[in-house]
Amino acid sequence: MSIVIDLDHETKKRTNPSIDAITALTQDDILKVNQTIIERMESPVILIPQVAGHIIAAGGKRLRPMLTLASARMCGYQGNRHIGLAACIEFIHTATLLHDDVVDESDLRRGAASANAVWGNKSSVLVGDFLFSRAFELMVEDGSLDALRILSQASSVIAEGEVLQLVTANDTETTEADYLEVIRSKTAKLFSAASEIGGVVAERSEEDCKALSSFGYNIGIAFQLVDDVLDYSARQTTLGKTVGDDFRDGKITLPTVLAFSAADGDEKAFWRRTLEDQEQKKGDFRRALALLEKSGALTATLERAREYGSRARFSLEAFPNSDIKSSLLEAIDFAIYRSY
User: Fold this and answer.
1) 132, 141, 219, 259 — which has fewest CB within 10 A?
2) Are residues 276 and 172 in contact, defined by beta-carbon separation less than 8 angstroms?
3) CA nearest neighbour of 70 among 340, 337, 338, 316
4) Domain coordinates of the chain in residue numbers?
């Protein structure tokens, strides 16, 4: 039975941060976003709503569209354009999940069977393409060239990040800079776009929109770094997936990059065997945890996440205090100190 590193002492540094506040404040808008998603998933090709509905129904925090909704409200927006654009953000995110599971050959998504495990890789890839197309329809319907520019660029950068991750897969020589470039593209770019769009629909200044973009970018990096740590430390029941999946799949994440960098010859050979060659045996995960603890890699990764969190908080300083701003600040703490 494998062990996990307990990081409860980290979460105690904050008073149970959550996304409850931002969820409550955007609840009415989220219901409209969900309705838009349901309507736009419809297709006479029955398999499309089945596959799309499967992954969307699997849950998730809806954090990205909530950032769009909350940013728009913080900027004083009173219209409805942010609804369609938030749905667009969720479609892009869902499409990338479908493609990710195929590339990663994943059988599970949030504790349930992945779409590709149920319907196969071809269906998952093609339905992912359908969702991307729906996202672009929503962008065009909004009519804003700025929104179209931001979201189409985000889609392009995400695709580049997917390819870059493929290039660096199972490569223990991956540097911290290399890895950060992957998550900047794969994760942070969509967080950034989701937040910036709120300022665009509110017709805020270029400076304000850049501040929102910076906020989203930095919370996105922090979110992914904490995800990296959770795979080696969280309880399976709260994480919704099997702890140690990244290790078993040979994924290179920041904790393993830092641990490899600090390793001696024998330890480097261990990481090459388990991550590059994918030759794993009983007890390897336990040893991986010991090496991560010895090198301080998990703690160092969390420290970096906190640094990005501080940058995200600084980006919001220009906006006046309000309940919605407070909920965004708490979302930063949630991203850093969460246990799932």
Assistant:
1) 141
2) yes
3) 316
4) 18-334
- What is the share, in percent, of the chain residues with pLDDT greater than 90? 71
Q: What are the pLDDT digits (tens) for 266-299?
A: 999 999 999 999 999 999 999 999 999 999 999 9
Q: What are the Cα distances from residue 267, in Å, to 146, 165, 168, 287?
A: 49, 24, 20, 10
Task: Give the model's pLDDT for residue 324.
Answer: 97
pTM of the model: 0.91
Distance, CA of 35 to CA of 49 (rounded, Å):
14
Confidence of residue 233 (pLDDT cuts 50, 70, 90): confident
The confidence score (pLDDT) of residue 125 equals: 87
CA atoms within 13 A on the CB side of 14: 18
* Phi and psi, residue 108, nearest 5°: -125, 145
Write the CA distances from 284 to 173, 259, 260, integer angstroms.
20, 15, 15
Looking at the DSSP bridge assignments, the partners of residue 112 are 109
**Position 235 confidence tier, pLDDT thresholds 50, 70, 90:** low
> Given the DSSP bridges, would you call strands 108-109 and 112-113 parallel, antiparallel or unpaired?
antiparallel
Measured CA to CA, the distance from residue 72 to residue 286 in angstroms comes to: 46
What are the helix and strand counts (H, E) for the chain?
19, 2
- The CATH class given to the 18-334 domain equals mainly alpha
- Of 37, 51, 57, residue with least CA distance to 124: 51
C-alpha triplet 98, 27, 236: angle, nearest 5°:
45
Cα 61 to Cα 223: distance, rounded to the nearest angstrom: 12
Q: What's the pLDDT tens digit per position in 22-31?
A: 999 999 999 9
pLDDT, the chain, mean: 89
- One-letter amino acid of 86: A
Q: b/e string for 195-230 if b means 16 or more Cβ within 10 A?
A: bbbbbbbbebeeebbebbbbbbbbbbbbbbbbbbbb
> Do residues 168 and 260 touch, judged by C-beta distance below 8 A?
no
Upper half-sphere CA count for residue 92 (Cβ side, 13 Å) = 30
